[in-house]
Amino acid sequence: MKPAKFDYYCPKTLDEALSLLEESGFDGKIIAGGQSLVPIMNMRLSGPECLIDINRLHDLDFIEFDEEKVKIGTLTRQSRVEMSSLIKENCGLLSEAVPFIGHVQTRNRGTFGGSLVHADPSAEIPLSLMASGGSVLIASKEETREVDVEDFFVTYLTTDIMPTELLTEVQIPIWSGRVGYDFTEISRRHGDFALVAAACQLTLDDQNKISRVRLTLGGVESVPLLVEEANQMMMGEKLSEALLNKVADIVREAVDPESDLHASADYRTHLAAVLAKRTIQTAYNRAGR
């Protein structure tokens, strides 16, 4: 199939892009990588009257670092994030998650911000950002606002971005101390969307007790799930089999996956508990080393 007729714009500045968004409102769509939007348009599931191509906004293609956080521009290609030594040294969880995205060709075209805005609940970048506790900058003609990742994802394929706004930057805090992390997922084939994914980042004190932890799960809710009850229970504890079993019980109660042609809800619930235990154990072992 072919998409419905639309107007095409290719702004050269952020201000021009924001002006076009303000003029078009609900009738306009941003396009960068296009790997999610174009198939949806071809199937006539979306019919924007105009596309605003931001690929010439080179100021939004960057990876920067300061003592407290790593900043990634929305237009930065996923493959650049994957290969960045700065990301590997300061955001190991993200570096581990990105290679699970599709295939090399997918990551060469896909943008970092595009994955976040698309907001697929099983996607790797939203899940790893949730586990890291980051935030995003969203710009409009009137202002630029910062939104914590917990407030950014609203529901399935829906974020806090308004029709006249554009995500410009992602900020990921650099965790200090004895930090451990892990990302894992189960899919039918390499490159497929994850049936269930899990990410965990934690720190240990001098007595090997968990002093900070963020366990997150993907593919089990309409948004990436931060398992807050499990995180609170693990605080101040040394890892043990009994503790992991308690986390698994909490996860089984917390998740609410759907059944589809790829996997049943019961199977996804089972995977969520298994992967939660696995990621916590690996993160804990890494922090201990």
UniProtKB/TrEMBL annotation:
The keyword Flavoprotein applies. It comes from the Bacteria. Residues 1-177 form the FAD-binding PCMH-type domain. This is Xanthine dehydrogenase family protein subunit M. InterPro entries: CO_DH_flav_C, CO_DH_flav_C_dom_sf, Diverse_Substr_Oxidored, FAD-bd_PCMH, FAD-bd_PCMH-like_sf, FAD-bd_PCMH_sub1, FAD-bd_PCMH_sub2, Mopterin_DH_FAD-bd. GO terms for molecular function: FAD binding; oxidoreductase activity. Keywords: FAD, Flavoprotein, Oxidoreductase. The keyword Lipoprotein does not apply.
